[in-house]
Amino acid sequence: MILEVAQLPVKAGEESAFETAFAQAAKIISAQPGYLSHELVRGADANNGSQYVLLVRWESVAAHQDGFRNSADYQKWRELLHTFYEPGVAVAHFATVAGALK
User: Fold this and answer.
1) Residue 32 Cα distances to 19, 54, 66, 80, angstroms
2) Are 58 and 38 in contact (CB under 8 A)?
3) For residues 24-37, average pLDDT
4) Of the candidates 81, 77, 89, which has an alpha carbon nearest to the alpha carbon of residue 4?
5) Domains of the chain by range and CATH?
6) At residue 100, does pLDDT exceed 90?
């Protein structure tokens, strides 16, 4: 299992619209081959309420990079979400070495 961690800096004031759009986008990503699960979290401190982190569990990096990112569905995903980000998204993949997410 691979954990994709995406830092999503949403433009201030657009959090509600982003969350609405993400509800639609979640249907797209959850239907992808190799997708296992996801979680969207929002900053809880007074100075980071526009910061989100998306955690997506994939069977492999290839399922995300070669599969989803190269699909027509990814273009729909981008159309729904990428106008909300400023300055841009940072994405990295991680493999578990100890412990487990619950």
Assistant:
1) 20, 16, 11, 16
2) no
3) 98
4) 89
5) 2-88 (3.30.70.100)
6) no
